Amino acid sequence: MRRREFLLGSISVLPLGLLATGCATAPPAAENVGAVDDDFLRELMAEEADGAFEMTEQVQRTLTTREWKSLNTVGSQWNWWETPKDERPAVSWPEAALAPDYAPFISLGPPPEQFSVSHDTLAWLAERNHFDLGDDEMVVIGLRGARLPDGATDSGWQDVVEAELEVPNHIDPRCLIGAWDRAGKRVRLFHGSTVPEVSYMWAQCRLDSGANLMPTGLYAYEVGVHPNDSKRTPQIGALRLAGYGFNADGPASPVIYTLRTLDNLTYSVGDGAEVWDRCAPGNNIHAAIFGGPSDKYLVGAGGQNYSSAGCQTIPGGYELYWGDDGKRWYSKEPIGTWRDFREAIGLAVSPVVVKRRACSDDGKRFRYMLLTGWDASFASAPDEKVLEAYFPLRPGSSGPDVEKLQKAAYSKPDGWFGAGTADAVVYLKKTDLGIAETPVTLNLAALDKAPPPDEVEESEAEERETSERIPAEEPDISSDAAAEGEHET
Questions:
Q1: What is the model's pTM?
Q2: Which of 244, 245, 384, 414 is most exposed, with the fewest beta carbons within 10 Å of its own?
Q3: Where do the domains of the chain lie?
C-alpha cells in the first residue's frame, strides 16, 4: 500500500460544517454534501502526501544491517487515529539526553522553565550559533518545545515576549513560530508545531509514506505554493524550503539532513530505530489546516490537530468554496493564526494572485532560525557555564569554527555546515566517539580528539564531501521531491 492508498483511510468526513462564507456558487443538495466532502478530503490528503521519501541508501543500509521490526502488524487500521486506543503504538518525545536537539546541551543543565525572547536574546543566539543572517530585516524564528503563557496563541508585537518550556508530543502544537523584526527590534510569536504529526510518523514506520524530524539550524525559504502540484487545495503564499542557503543563482540545494524513525514513534538517537537521511523532504512552512472550529477548518481523523510529515505548521487554513463543478476548492484567502503570521512577516494579507496558483509575493526569501525552548532559555538568563560553553555548531552555521569542525570530522573544510558536514559529524560521533548521534555539536574539543579514519572511513568521508553544496545529481528545487516533499496538508 503506497501513499495515496494509505491516505484514503485517514479522513473523517464533515457534512455541512466545512462550508466557508463567501462561496462562489451554492452548495449541492444536502444529501450530496457528505460524498463531496469525502472526495475533497481524500483528494487533499493524497495530493499532500510524501513525494520525497524513497528507500535511500541510508535507510536501506539500516534495514539490511539489523533486524527489521516494523509496525506493519500493529493495529487494525492504517491510520493511527482510527486504530483502537488499546492497539495504537505509543508515541512519545524522548528524554533530553536522547533527543537530537537537546542531548548536546545536557552538560549545561536544564534551563529555567520561564524565559524571555527579545531582539537581544535572538541576536545573541544567532551570533553564538554562527548563523549569518546578512542584512535581512525580517527573520522567521522557530522554538521547538516552547509555549506562550496561559494558553495564548499570539503574543502580538512586543519588545520582550514571555514564554515557557514545553515538551513536544506529535499530537498537539507545542512549539512557537514567529517573526523577528530586526529593523524594529521587536518580536511576535505564534503557537504552532515544528515536529511531524503522529499519523505521518506511523506511515513512515510502515514504509507507506515519509516523515522526518528536521534538526535545529538555519534554513532558507522562498514564498510559493504548497504543495507544488496541488490542483484543488493549494496553499498560496506558503514558505517553501530551499535548503540551507542561497547563492548568486538562487537556492543552493533543496537537500538537507533529517532524522527518520523506522520502527517506533519516538525520535530518539539512542535506541537504534532511527536513521539520518540526506534528502530533499520539502519541509515547508504552512497552515496546519486541522485543529480549528469545524465551520472554518478541515477535520482529520480522530483527534488530529495539525497536519505535518516534517513541515513547520501554524494553526489556520484557507477559506473553502464550492466550485462550478460541485466540488470543494481552496480559495486564496488565509484564515486563523496562519493569516496573522503571514501578515507579521510582511506578506500581503490577501495574496494577490498574478496567475493560477502564483501570487505577487512568490520568490520572496526568508531565513528561518530554528532552535529550541532550551536555547532561548539559555539566552534569556545565561549563567557562567552557558557564557563559557554555549557556542553550538549545527546545520546552517558558517565560519572558521565550522572549518575546524569539518577538519575534525574529515569533511570538506569550506566553512559551510550543510548536509555533507552533518553526515560526517554524525558518522564520526557514532563510530569513533560513541556519543549521541546528532549533527548538533557543542563540544568541538571532543571532536578534535577523534582518532584518524581508516581507509574505509576516508572513502566514505570523501563521498560526503562531494555532496556538501550543490551536487549535480541532486533534485531540482521545483521537483516534487523538493517542492511537494513529505506533505500533508
A1: 0.83
A2: 384
A3: 1-383
